[in-house]
Every structure is written in C-alpha cells, then in structure tokens.
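User: Show me a protein chain along with its predicted structure.
Assistant: Here is one chain, sequence first, then structure tokens.
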Amino acid sequence: MLAGEPYLADDPELAADALRAALLSERFNATSAADPQGRRTALTELLGEIGADVEIRPPLRVDYGYNITVGPRTFVNFGAVLLDVGRVTIGADVQIGPNVQLLTPTHPLEPEARRAKWEAAEPVTIGDNVWLGGGVIVCPGVTIGEDTVVGAGSVVTRDLPSGVVAVGNPARVVRELVREG
C-alpha cells in the first residue's frame, strides 16, 4: 500500500485498521470545543504523528489515520478529508481551509482490475507554511512546496513549487511570492 503497489481494498487486516480509524474519528468528532485535551488525546491515538500546538477542527475523515503526519503549529479547519491509504505529510505552520481534501488512493484504469477491487496509492506532501484555501483538492502523488498558497476551490493535479500562488482547476501558478528577509 505505502510502496504504491496494488492491494485489495477489502483485505481483512485493512478492514480492521479502517474500523479502528472510524471509531477513533467518531470519538474525535464528538469531542467538545471545551475539551481541548480530549481532542488532542483522540488525535494522538488516531494520527501517526502530530506536532505541538496543532489545531484540527472536527469533523475529520480519514482512511486509517496512522499514515498521517502533521507538523507543529498547523491549523486544519472544519470538514477535512485526509485519505491516507498512502502517506500524507503536512508540514509545520500550515493553514488548511474548510472542506479541504488530501487524496492518496488511486484506481486502475482497466475495468476488470477495478471490478476486482484493486487499488494503489501515491503520497501527498504539503510543505511548511503552505496555505490551502477552502475546498482545495490535492490529488494523489502531489507535493506542494513550502510557502505556497493555493486558492479556494482549486484542484491540484501536479506538484507546485515553493513560494507561489496557484489557482484553478487544474491549479496553475499565477504568480511568485516575494521572499521575506
């Protein structure tokens, strides 16, 4: 799965892992804003790694959770979908708007392989200090470079370099950002 090799989605071990993630997600999504420690505890159990001072607002949807790494001081707004069949790496100081989707699963183009339930995955990597506007979709295999801004509603189908603004479907670089310092 993590190596990008095809796998069967209904594998019993994966089904058990998905159930674990569903139960932990339910617990996280049911936590009160008045219980930040309860939220943090649920996220620590659900996610592979979570940095200091991370805020993730429920609801959150994941496949397995343990393939997700979130860097320190990152903010994830309501309604995130992080499909972590492959690795999802979110850097430090990232801002993720509402209803953003980071998608790693891929499916074969051949009808028979799809019918047989074969899948694969490609990792998604979000660099440090990236801002993903509301409703952004990041497709499998994409890396977004540090300090990049992706406009609301964009669909990112290929890698984006560091320090740019990208918008649209598919997302295209519309300008470079001036480096501070």
